[in-house]
Amino acid sequence: MQRLNKYLISLAAFLAVICFATAQPDAQRFAPMALGTNTSGSATLTLRGYVDTIYVSVSDYTSTGTVAIAYAPSVGTTSVSVATGSCVGQKVWRPVVALTSVTGTNHTADFGQFPLVGETLTFSVSGSPTGVTWKCLVVTEDGK
Question: For residue 24, what is the DSSP state?
Fold first, then answer.
């Protein structure tokens, strides 16, 4: 009986190590954008997964700019806004999208994360002082 308990404990520890080793971490993609003498600019990232969090910051941590993060879906041409707004120094977004019914109407209380299947996400800044570098970090999760 004691050997069986040791065997089961060893098996459980082995399975825990396998689960930990094969777990897929969140993917992170980083896009820096040096403005130089410009007051606006953009950078792109190609992503797969569900958008979890977007971090934006500027090199001096005090400048202000208008940030827009959007993508064109794999099917269609209409740009989809993921996050937008004024940013002072740094900002964090945890964007969600309204889920739809089978008829295509938005639910007013049900939300989910933006799913990306290899689309190009565009990170744009406007109205910024010159000579700073803006950075965007997008954290995605694998399938649900």
Answer: P
Q: Residues 31-76: pLDDT tens digits?
A: 778 888 899 999 998 888 999 999 999 999 999 999 999 998 888 8
Phi and psi dihedrals of 37, rounded to 5?
A: -90, 5
- Is residue 43 within 8 Å of residue 137, measured between CB atoms? no
Query: Does residue 8 lie within any of the structural domains?
Result: no
Domain annotation covers residue 37? yes
Residue with tokens 């089961």: 8
DSSP per residue over 78-119, as a string?
A: --EEEEEEEEESEEEE---EEEE-TTSPEEEEEEEPPEEEEE
Sign of the alpha-carbon dihedral angle for 17, 21, 24, 25: positive
Residue-number span of the structural domain to which 133 is assigned:
25-141
Is 56 within a domain? Answer: yes
| Number of domains, the chain | 1
| The one-letter amino acid at 136 | C
Question: What does pTM read for this prediction?
Answer: 0.75
Cα of 31 vs its chain's centroid, Å = 11
